[in-house]
Design a protein that fits this description.
142 residues, 6 helices, globular, 2 domains
Amino acid sequence: MNQNHHWVIFALASAGFAAATAIFGKLGVNALNSNLATLIRTLVILVMIVIVVSIRREWQPLNALSPYAIGMLVISALATGASWLCYYYALKWGPASRVAPLDKLSVVLVIVASILFLKEPLTWKVALGGALVAAGVVILAL
């Protein structure tokens, strides 16, 4: 695979890990408060990322970081935290086979936001794919 397409491998790996997140999360959240489950998950992720950044020697001095980039990442982190809190609460009370598809409506929302805010083009493939994802969510989750 061409170096420019390695993102596909990582995107597919992300999907696999997201599926594992739903299954193992559902098993774990059954015995815990959903907020505590999210905290435990977040702490494990924090340790894991510190180890990865340290092994790869990717630390950078704070004065070398873009304030804009940091601001966008802080907003992204707040959105991630809210998403995880909601996701684990939904997993606590709903079946994983219906919660996960509803969560994937994020694909459709990303398509819309990328067109509106990132000025990405709306191609027929993107429109059809988004419509099929939305239809799949409706069929699977409702």
